[in-house]
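Something for you to look into today, if you have time. I want to see for myself how the chain folds. Leave the record below and I will have a look.
***
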Amino acid sequence: MPEQPLVQPTEFDPEDEYRPEPEPEPLPPVWMDGSLRIGIHTSIAGSYLKALESARKLGCNALQIFSASPRMWQGGTARIPDVDAQAFRARRDELRLGPLVIHANYLINLASVQRMLQTRSIQAFHDEIVRAMALGADFLVVHPGSRGEATMGQAISTIVESVKQASKRAPMGSLRILIENTAGMGTAVGARLEEVGDILAGLRNLPVGACLDTAHLFAAGYDIKSEAGLASTIGQIDGAIGLENVPVIHVNDSKIPLGGRVDRHEHIGKGKIGAEAFARILRHPRFGSAAPEGLTGRAFVAETPIDDPGDDRRNVAALWELAGLREQAPEAEKGFSMLTPALKKKISENRKIEKKRKDNAETLRTQRFAGNKTRTKKSAARKSKAKKKRG
């Protein structure tokens, strides 16, 4: 039997070693196409899906919602059923709406020095994170809170710790928490841009950013109405926060004059800021969604009042008009409004009932005060009479 030829051992080549392929970079969302994103806060009354349909019918390509009732601690379930969440995400993809912004419960006070309120706020904000993740939200906006008798430094430290506690055991995925600036009413934290910046600095290991509200900025004393004032404000935003860290802007006109420190929203172009200023903001390259100066995916979201049916649709249309993009705006459904005549009538009736209740309570207080005053006078008269008799 012939001898088999000897096979020379092959030298090991490090290049031959198996290396797992790196994870592919995630694709950007379907809605992030470089276009300007304009939306409005839509109602989830009835179902989450209705909020999407309202945004579509109002001519939006972005939207903001509450994930539960914003004025109740038990505003809804902490968890959204999978079937509802999946249906919402699928329909949103079909409509190419984005970003999806969720606004947290108004009762949450992450700065509270009262231990019970702080604990409740942390739990409520944790639930907001869980619901936002289920719905596939891009951003979760929260007010910093009110500091009470604490110093500003103490309040900022409390806010940072509260957010950290709320986000524990809640993998954020692509969700980003946004701290919103405030109008400066009372002891609210966040009226100064530096305060928002300090909160973000304390949360630098978490996916965070800022949401700036135009009405709040104006009421807090930032002159965004004039061209020079806007340029100055942009410089201050850059210095304190970085405009690249502001992916959402709440566009609201203000019923309050510059520096009034009260949060009162007005229809676009009808308030103290005015249409000219909003056109300047919406067309400013630093606020845009185009590189190199803008931020891809940045959204302008209105939180304007709906006093009459159609106000919501008209405010969205005004934003597209002032941005100079009326021809590129999604088509709105003629005549649609989240405020129907029937709903307006119901709201009006509820307001009358509430006013009557308050008036009755005030009348009762007045009567009690008058009664107490009368009894006091009679008592004083009796005492005076008795004193005269003794004398």
